Amino acid sequence: MDSSVYVFAEDLRGEGVERVLDRISGYGVAGVTVGAVHHAARDVTPHGLSRLTVRHDGAHFAPPADLFDGLRLTPVPGHAAVFDGLREACAKRSMKLHGWTVFLSNATLGAEHPDVTVRDCFGDRGSPGDLCPAHPDVREYAVALARAVARLGVDSVVAESLHFLPLKAQRSFVPLGPMDTYLFGLCFCDYCLRRAADLGVDAETAREECARIVGRVLDGDPPAQGEVTRAALTAYAGPDVVAYARARSETVTTLVSEVASAVAEEGSRLVFIDSTGAVKGYADGLPTPGLAAHDAWQLGVDLVALGDLVPAFGALAYARDAARVADDVGAYLRSVGKDREVRAVLRPGHPDSDSLDRLVAKARAAKAAGALAVDFYAYGLAPHPVLDRIPAALAEAL
């Protein structure tokens, strides 16, 4: 069974490539998934050079000039030397190297070019870090970025945030329910409106309905209760809004298709990860009831369509319960097709795994459900005793 450990660029810079790879190879994993492009964050890093690490938006390699010449959006410079010699260092240990790439979450680019970010039903661009996948400049940037990472000689380009992103307000003293939050997070930029209209959707009516419903809650009306489903959304917001939400999948599917083709042309392959599993369980490992594969449509992800276009998928199995991990992996396989590779991404420690036994049970469940790989997230965020659980988990999955 294939496997890897997710590694941040700052891990390699702070602890040294040789030291990090020696430790990870000692876990018995087949490779490392290294952050080639990441978004800004501030993380507690228990064994890092700094115990509180500030990450900035950045591409941690030198972008090939021919790919971005003439493009409006270009990668934000990061730690340019991270991948220097890394391919060779991995090969020396018979380890695979995967390039972890965050595509459309980039507040630096959004601040420099606000018109490429999502625009809500009120006409506001209040999510500067969320680049809209319908915008032509964003699409050109994503394809070029995928090619650039593939040219690093990686075995795969692991795509994160290559879809619409959910609304994440830092503070809200208004009790927005899940459906109100979803409607508030829909993008109604000119390109999204045009794409939906081209598919026969009354896009302007959908926008007006979202503004009316969310505006009513912001004015003090009680929010809608219950989870977001297509049936509930139809009853709450009407068929035009549901049709608009469905139209987003065409935007994402065509973009992912272009990116997958570009990666293949560069001699690598795409591993697609949608963020639904993280939306559901990132904070506490207790995901909301609907399975991630069933709710991926909320981010514009049509897994059935992507199953014909993408060779491999990562399922973010951020759950404490082994049965839930098995259910999520099984749902992904049923959606993308049994001939596709599904990689279960597990967190070896808090908040998902409070013991070795729990992690082992989840690795076993992922394999039994049909996962062909188990990946562990993430080296720099977990204490060494937690990372030391990985060999036992792999033993169950092999």
UniProtKB/TrEMBL annotation:
Listed name of the protein: Alanine-rich protein
